[in-house]
Design brief:
Keywords: Cell membrane, Membrane, Transmembrane, Transmembrane helix, Transport
Largest sheet: none
Subcellular location: Cell membrane
Organism: Ramlibacter terrae
Radius of gyration: 23 Å
Family: Belongs to the binding-protein-dependent transport system permease family.
Strand content: under 5%
Pfam families: BPD_transp_1 (PF00528)
CATH class of one domain: Mainly Alpha
CATH architecture of one domain: Orthogonal Bundle
Shape: globular
Length: about 300
């Protein structure tokens, strides 16, 4: 592990990272967010999922530095008496898990279909690209809202895991198109190069050529797109939760906290919605900046 880190540090990508003025702070913010979300059970001062520890008399307390605040709740509490700081950590974990899983599934579907369309061409390419055109004609948030709403309507009393599954599927079905079109374009360029022709002459099967020879040469744009898509997926999850069709109301998702705080913001209780919004912005901004850095680092023309 240590040797792998040293090799990465001495590589061109590592040099690009440590000399980039934006990649280091973005990486630090992303690392802190991921660490707090992953180890929320140990880092968070309270457990917002434990209903037995909630005190309704502590509901809607302001941050500790404001009049009426308590040092027990540094960033205040929401309408149910949950600690905002703890809810941010647990909510970030929900957002990151939903975003990461949906991006991985979108990447797997999009890369496989893009490779098939770009390498085989013909009616397969035309059929898959028409499906992509149809998907692109609908706003992604509308498709995700429709799928998530139908899933919640069909399974109104389903467990939380089913609700999370419906949310992940809704984001996945709106995100695979970008990967498919990107990989298709890169595959159409790679399939006519000499190493592919040489593999065909030597009798290598088309499936092996696609995944053994072509795929490694088209992963650069996919990694950049996947990094940026994580931020988009997190924002989509927050939007769906804000609209009431995302994660269950009992889960302190960032979107759920923003929706709850929206009902009290005009009463002066701004902290319920502002802190989750700031957390969402920090996560999305850091991931987008890392995606921009990765795009420049993997592009030899921009080095």
């Amino acid at each position: 592990m240590k040797q792998a880190l040293l090799r990465w540090y001495d590589s061109d990508v590592g040099y690009s990272f440590r000399t980039s003025p934006m990649a280091i702070p973005a990486g630090a913010i992303a690392l802190v967010c991921v660490f707090c979300a992953t180890f929320a059970g140990f880092v968070a001062p309270h457990n917002p999922f434990d209903l037995t520890t909630l005190v309704l008399s502590d509901a809607r307390l302001p941050p500790a530095w404001m009049e009426g605040g308590s040092t027990k709740y540094l960033l205040g509490t929401d309408d149910r008496g949950r600690d905002i700081l703890s809810a941010l950590m647990y909510g970030a974990r929900i957002s990151l898990v939903v975003g990461a899983v949906s991006v991985v599934l979108s990447m797997l579907i999009g890369v496989a279909l893009g490779l098939l369309a770009g390498f085989r061409g013909g009616w397969i390419d035309g059929f898959l690209m028409r499906i992509c055109d149809v998907m692109l004609s609908f706003p992604p948030i509308l498709v995700a809202l429709l799928i998530a709403g139908v899933g919640r309507a069909l399974f109104p009393n389903a467990a939380d895991s089913v609700a999370f599954g419906v949310l992940i599927i809704s984001i996945t079905l709106t995100g695979w198109v970008q990967y498919a079109r990107t990989v298709r374009g890169s595959t159409m360029v790679e399939r006519n190069k000499e190493y592919v022709q040489a593999a065909r002459v030597t009798g290598v099967t088309p499936l092996r050529i696609m995944f053994r020879h072509v795929l490694p040469n088209v992963t650069g744009p996919v990694l950049v797109l996947g990094t940026i898509h994580v931020a988009t997926a997190i924002i989509t999850e927050a939007t769906l939760s804000f609209l009431g069709v995302g994660v269950p109301p009992t889960s302190p998702s960032l979107g759920t906290l923003i929706r709850v705080g929206n009902d009290y913001i005009f009463a002066g209780e701004w902290w319920i919605t502002v802190w989750p919004g700031v957390m969402l912005i920090l996560i999305a901004l850091s991931v987008n900046l890392l995606g921009d850095w990765l795009r420049d680092a993997l592009n030899p023309v921009l080095r």
